[in-house]
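Appendix B. One record, verbatim.
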Amino acid sequence: MNVLVEFHAIPWQAAAPGGRSKTVVSGAQRVRLLELTEGFEEPQWCTHGHAGRVLEGSFTLRTPTGAQRLGEGDVFVIEPGEEHAHKAELGNGQRTLLLLFESADT
């Protein structure tokens, strides 16, 4: 049984312009190391659920009704569904590293 996630041994994969990730799937769980840099932009609202921690940097989590700034060390939980739609936004020159815990089927 391997319980250690060795992100250093996993190659980066392009996730979107300005974003890349390393992903491990085990059963029904997915763990992602997600790096966002200047130029990252989500064209559509995300409706997937996420739980995670900001490892480095900061970003703004925007919803249709407002925004919240999340910084290094912050832990967050976003429920799935249209009523929890969200987007991550970065400022110029920013880099953010997130550790995400998600359902493997999203």
